[in-house]
Amino acid sequence: MPAEYTPASFDPLSTVQIANTICETFERQPLVSMTHEIPRFEGSGLYALYYRGASVDLYLPLARLQIPVYAGQALSSNTATGERVRERYPLHSRLKQHRLSIMEGGLPIAEFRFRALLLPDVHADLGENALRVGYTPIWNSMLKGFGSKEQGATTRQSKKSKWDTVHDGRRRTHGGVVHDIEKLSAEAEAHIARQVSDYDELPWPHPTTEAYLDLGAP
């Protein structure tokens, strides 16, 4: 026995451990094609979007990794009031909105997948935060604006987001262009390179490409 020894410490109910367990379970869920309309299902929870194609050079380094381009949650209650939302299909509705944004942004929808897991609000929140911190998804961090909802006149008067600058085409108007697309693209490439470099440093194990089911387009 070494001269100095301290047993490992493990708290299975710590928020960190719970978040890691959620993410590990989440990443065992199948990747589902977004080519066609997503069949409607009830419930709220955690979701993420992934690139699985070969035609968009910017996202090509992510095509065979578990790194999502976007991570989010759809809750069953209003975070401000605690009241339950009237929507029976909050997670499905969010994915449906994102599918439309991807297509309007000129991206090939057949090359994108989603992964989803029904969860209580508190656990969906933990999972989303862990995915965002662990992976820093490009559409959550560097190219912000993808997840914003159309807010009528408010959105139309706001400046064009970074995401809309790089992926122009969504059916919304903007008050003006404030971002340089060439600079954004270069920054996005550097961000993705860092993601790939840090891929094996996550606190939870992620399955290999062969270990998860990809329900892609036929």
TrEMBL record:
It comes from the Bacteria. The keyword Transmembrane helix does not apply. The keyword Secreted does not apply. Residues 149-171 are annotated as: Disordered. Coiled coil: none annotated. One of its GO terms (molecular function) is endonuclease activity. InterPro entries: Restrct_endonuc_II_Eco29kI. Keywords: Endonuclease, Hydrolase, Nuclease. Its EC number is 3.1.21.-. This is Eco29kI family restriction endonuclease. It comes from Streptomyces ossamyceticus.
